[in-house]
Amino acid sequence: MTRARISVFAALLASLVLAACTPAPVIRATPVDRTEIVNRMRSDVEDFASDVLGGRRPGTAGARAAYPWIEKRMAEIGLESGSNDPGSYWRLPVDLLAIEPDTAQLTLGQGKGRFIVPVTDAAVYTPRRRALAIGGPGTGAPVVFVGYGDGSVLGDRLAGAVAVMLADPGRDTARREALFDQQATAVLTVVPDREALAEVRRREDRSKLILANEEQDHLAGYITDDAFAKVIGARRWKAFKADADKDATGSDPIELNLAVSIDATSERREFTSQNIIGKLPGTVPGSGAILVLAHWDHLGECGAPGDVDRICNGAVDNASGIAMLLELARSLKAGAPLERDVYFLATSAEEPGLLGIRSFVRNPPLPLGSIVAAFNLDMMALAPAGSPVGLIGRGRDPALDVVIMAAVAKSGRSMGDQPLADSFLQRQDGWVLTQAGVPTVLMSSTYGSRAILDPFLAARYHKPSDEAAAVEYGGAVEDLLLHEAVIRQIADPQRYPAHHPAQAKPAP
After folding, report:
1. DSSP-derived secondary structure letter, 63
2. Who wins on pLDDT, 324 or 13?
3. Is the preceding omega at residue 275 within 30 degrees of 0, hence cis?
4. What is the pTM of this model?
5. Among 492, 205, 213, which Cα is nearest to 361's?
């Protein structure tokens, strides 16, 4: 950064500090009544986390019932549509694909012999209805051992090949994706033992949800070390692994004299879920926008088979976020008019991988570069009043930090455990917006202290016990008032200039 740019930026921060310290304008039409706020939020949480919605898993009847519930509340508050599409007043479609593994078979051999690897020693997965890869002598598709490499140094030498790699925990997913990027037709991972294979099954033998436009034609197999050694020869396999230990990059791949057939099928269901978006129009069009978001989905039925209560209602996660989003919209609507537009976005499919917000970023109803700040609301009603504030996303936009810190100090509250908040940066919808260049934070007393968060994670997180009756509203009301104060300042272009409009980046 040049000296001139530093000076300009320092002047901007100084102006924001001064703005934050000046007397705040009257922001509400009526005095704060915390009891009324709690009553409204509790009513919304009880409705939205009720058994009637069945845990709000995308693609279920409960999820489909969630759309009109949110729309009705937005309309009652007096929001306008934020979709900018007259044909879809509140809704932004999110096209999803549910994939359930079905059948699988791995066959290996040398010479004329062929050996179907038993399910105790092998597993195969594909997102396609059926995928089949055949490689080895006479097939035109070589079987290539890359050891601990990822194919990145091999150029086009892997195109059409079946790649065999050694498991390396922590790097396997990235290496496998890199091999597919090098046009490998299939990737076979050799795992240490049956226990490691069982861990693969626990991760992969379940229904997955992905964005329909992100489907990839992958075929991934797994085999235990002992089973692979029996086919290829124990002494030969030991030598290959020794060579791999010396060549961590896999720059010297070995073509194996091995016949491979990898076959898998999946059950698939395509469906459309919905993001729901409302808008509080500002009085100065074109001055930028603020985005407030919360995910509406949860896990549906996630209790153990045979349990009396199997519904994961998601009261804290994230009926509380939706309730706060609605109450914040009501408060902002009832107070002094705002100059900037404020959008209120309820996202789908956060739980399976931040899919709803990724869809939003790929096809936003407003330019991402016009969003001067975004505020994610996730698990917002857990801490009692007086709890410290956790700030996820701190340090990524200094100007936004200045406003937030000043508002926290003015409220008499303290900042909480920053490493705890930082550990959640990539686990929430705001991360996708951050990656797309939108200044985004999640500020909540939930993430300010391990003494508050850890017991919830251990006993209620993603469990049927996350019920409305156990929700704590003391800290949530304080967080709501903090959001309102910050948003009202940022909604004023004079007090918060659009210092660095976000540049839209490719969706992650």
Report:
1. H
2. 324
3. no
4. 0.86
5. 213
